[in-house]
Structure formats: structure tokens, C-alpha cells
Input
Amino acid sequence: MDPQTLPAKELAIYEKIKSQFKVAFEPLTVQQHRLNLLKYTDLEEILDGKDPFKNPSEFPVWIRLWESAIVLADFLADQQPKPGTTMLELGAGLGATGLVAAAAGFEVTLSDYEERILEFQQINAAASGLTGVRFKLLDWLQPTALEQYDVIIGSEILYREDFLEPLLAIFQQALKPGGVIFLAHDEGRQNVAPFLRLAEETFSIGMTRRKLKSLDKDKVILLTRLKRRD
Output
């Protein structure tokens, strides 16, 4: 990916980020869809001396492309949405899952809690040749008013216990009647079961297990579907 081929707005954002951090584009192919994702190449530079093993809450989870995001992207690549089907991705990070969904025909809004993350998303959308993607600053603990969407997605968003009730409130507010939520998490994620117990009063829940093969160790990803009860 040649950064000089970016549109002027995204090129200016890229140049600003590149002047501050070590970054590089990496390709990602999901079925017939090819993305170009700008990523940090020096984790120590981002952690700035913090030890993520002492305080995992300080680890910037958005900088990593999680296996669950790839599994959810692969699932969405198979969908054939009706024209105008809207989607909100929560905790979109680098934007891979939502960008694959956009390439598959969804009208996608990527969201996260920092302007810097949204800048990476903007660059990645442009670098992947995708237009019409929207970007929204969204703090789950202090949410602003939300419009409603046909589909809400999220990968590895249940990593903190204090997120469970705020996320459930966002789902209840932002999901259109008849809409659907798709979540993907590593099967070892401890907060999945407590969240689903909270959600089952409002939503009907279905779950499948999908295996992602890797050179180190196969990962089992829980793909969860939630629909509001009638």
C-alpha cells in the first residue's frame, strides 16, 4: 500500500501519525475482500513504560487485530444485506470487521472512545477503497444520544466487568425493532457468561463455536447472536 495514493484528508492524518509513531500498512484478506490496515509496529512506544501484565486495563486493546474480529468478519462476508441495512460496530479498533461488512454491502458506522482510534479507522477505510463509512466517538460509560441501527456488532468488547451493564444499555437503546446483534469472543473470555445472563431477560440468544486455525494453537471463538424478545 502506497500511502501517497490516499485522499488528501487521510494522507494528512497519516503523515501526522507517522511523525509521532512507527506505523506500517498490513494487508488483510477475508474471502473476496482485501483491506489495507495501518498498524503500530512498536508496542513499547505505545505502552510508554506501562506494564500491561500488572494492569491489563491499561493495555490499548484496539491496536491488536483479534482473532475473534477475523472470525466475525468472515461470518459477515457471507451475508447479503438488503440495500440500506445499517450497522454499528462497537469498539471497532482498527476497523477490520466493520470494513469487511462495508465491503459486503452494509452501511457501517465504526465507533470507539478516542479520536486517535477514529483517525486510524478513517485511514484504513480510505486505504481499502471504501467510501460511505461513518465514524463515531462513543464512550460506553458516558454515551451520547444514539441513533438506531439494524445490526450491532462487536469483537472482544466484554473484557472488563464494568462494561457489561453499560453495553447492555447501549444495545437496548441503539438496536432497531427487529434488529440483531452479533458478538465474537475467545471462548476463554470470563465475562461472556455473566453478560449473557444479564441480557437474556431482554434478548433471545444463540451461540455457535468457530475454530480459527493458527500456527501456534487453534483458537475457539464464540459467535453470539442476540435478538430482542417480542
Observations:
- The longest strand covers residues 175-186.
- Residues 8-20 form the longest helix (13 residues).
- The helical segments are 8-20, 43-47, 67-77, 96-103, 115-127, 164-174, 192-199.
